[in-house]
């Protein structure tokens, strides 16, 4: 076999190997891709349907709309009171009353937002701070939160001011650099113009060559007598070629006399030369007034007249920022917290509006000391002014206030009445335009939500929650439209969620009483009386080794459950048998029992069969 044949055979073998390897890899890749195809995941089915919501947050209670229907009167009244802040005056304190869901907080936030935006428009310093007293419910926490917020605002303003000053320094650097370049270009021309050929006094001065040849300086005493000098003739150019003796008083008034060093009056040429020398040397006038800054200078229309003043201001601001100390949430004496809050508020000239939501919760837990301090601050503040807006569900909470606090706090009062069904319908229609996609609501959904909410003292918050929950239920079932059925399911769910939360947080003794009622109803007992509940309650206490209360105390616990809406207890007369309470369950039985059994102590109770005493039915 020749070399060419061997080469050809070897190339064919390599090509065959490459073909086999390529085919092998191709089949392997295909199997791998088949195995790696994504399977239908847990959330894929849920994402397959079209969403109903466009912006669900619009239906949240925390959302502040751009327009609040049926609250224009209350909003306008708040605006007429708070407009004083935009004039730099102290607005009157405001107390806002109304039941839950009547738009108190939303209206107050809307007005405060408009107030802050308008203050920025007219460059009037005005700050609004919101505190929820149901969460921040002690004097220490309220003052600490306010102090830290104003410290944060002060630090932000200091940073902005320092940025402005540093920018001014950069502009000043550019201005001085441009001026130096211009002076360098003008200097040779200016020096040539110092000696004017047409100036008669210039010709009277000897040049350097003449001084060198004669060995005498200009202005030295002449060998001629003053009389001879005075009577000497003038040159062709009209200038004197002699010098007048400075010691001659008569020569002081000679118009041809050259000015000497000690003369008070100077020629125009000498004054011009002196002014030019000052410009070239960079020296300014001796007057220290700040209004000597040239009109086009960067420091014009600023309170500064030099670079040093700007640098001193920056250093002072940095020292102020370092002096701020954040208040911890615990650990300081209350008077120290108040002092820090006072200094933080009074650091700048501004009007401060403090909004205290659920203000009655603060008074119930901590008394009226906080309100007393806040309402009396203006008599001590120097730069700022403070106004208070209090929001409360309790119309009578001011009855527990100190008379001095009550008089200063309740300068203006605004009452928010409950919404009726038509007003709730307008609110829901206004929100639903933004919250849902087009065609997502059937015609009867919004009227039904408004009717349910109107039954409970016109609560707009309840109406919004109902509409949002109905939309969520429809979306979970992958329905394209929200219908009446979804609203009724949402009503049951919201009610159940409320019951679950209430039952879960009951004390153990109340849970035992409720469990006894549930066991009686499960065994078909109707019109349950207090004695029957007490008998089962005692057996349950024995099961979990709990203390047994008296029957009178168990009766009080039943009344508390009735007040919470969990049971319905009605006192009925049995004629000669006396009066008794007939008790029935007001919440879903199975769900309530499940919540009770989730308690670790009640979960150990075995199946207790109630013993029902024989009763004579009328």
Overall shape: it is elongated
Quick one: biggest sheet?
5 strands, parallel
Query: What is the element string, with H for helices and E for strands?
Result: HHHEHEHHHHHHHEHHEHEHHHHHHHEEH
Number of helices, where a helix is a run of at least 4 consecutive DSSP H or I residues: 22
The percentage helix is 40-55%
Query: Which percent band covers the strand fraction?
Result: 5-15%
First CA to last CA: what distance? 125 Å
* Unreliable parts: 17-34, 200-205, 210-290, 614-618
Structural class: alpha/beta
The tally of strands reads 7
Strand order of the largest sheet: 2-3-4-1-5
- Mean pLDDT score, rounded? 78
Radius of gyration: 47 Å
Write the layout of secondary structure elements.
Layout: H1 3-36, H2 44-48, H3 72-82, E1 94-98, H4 104-121, E2 126-132, H5 139-192, H6 200-204, H7 208-214, H8 226-230, H9 268-281, H10 307-323, H11 334-345, E3 351-357, H12 359-366, H13 369-375, E4 385-392, H14 403-409, E5 412-416, H15 421-435, H16 445-455, H17 460-476, H18 484-504, H19 508-522, H20 530-544, H21 551-563, E6 567-573, E7 579-585, H22 589-597
Parallel strand pairs: 1-4, 1-5, 2-3, 3-4
Antiparallel strand pairs: 6-7
Helix pairs in contact: 3-4, 5-10, 5-11, 15-16, 16-17, 17-18, 18-22, 19-20, 19-21
